[in-house]
Amino acid sequence: MVMGGNIPINEEIAEISPYIHHSKIASTEQPICTICDDDRISKTVVTWCTGCEVFFCGKCEKHHRKSRLSKDHKTMSAEDYHQLPTFIEEISSQCKEHQEKFERYCPFHACLCCVQYITDKHQKCQDIKPSSVILNQAKSSASVPLFEKDLKNL
């Protein structure tokens, strides 16, 4: 076990720490809708989209649910999102350097990569796999029940 703050977490979870970004909103701040904020409008959030990694107000969430591109995204209430342990909230599916989704996994460096990062830094690496293959293997891993147990013990 590895310690995550005061929380013990297994080694596989510790390995994802390089992919964590620090976007947690301070508990005294009230999050606002990401879409409305782009237009300099402040609206209280209702949901968090795990696919887009953004907060939505009620109106924007309704449009998000109806869009063909995002209708199958998983969302959770803003309240549930803020109940998550900090290390879970801070996991990102996007490259910090290029703001692109992680799409590949480099087994030599044991890291997730966006397409641009592979072009820039992993040209000589072999056996780069789609991240979906790695995620499916991780989901079927024997450590998943241990991780679930760790989360239940929080």
UniProtKB/TrEMBL annotation:
Domain of life the protein comes from: Eukaryota
Protein name: B box-type domain-containing protein
One Pfam family this sequence matches: ANCHR-like_BBOX
Organism of provenance: Mytilus galloprovincialis
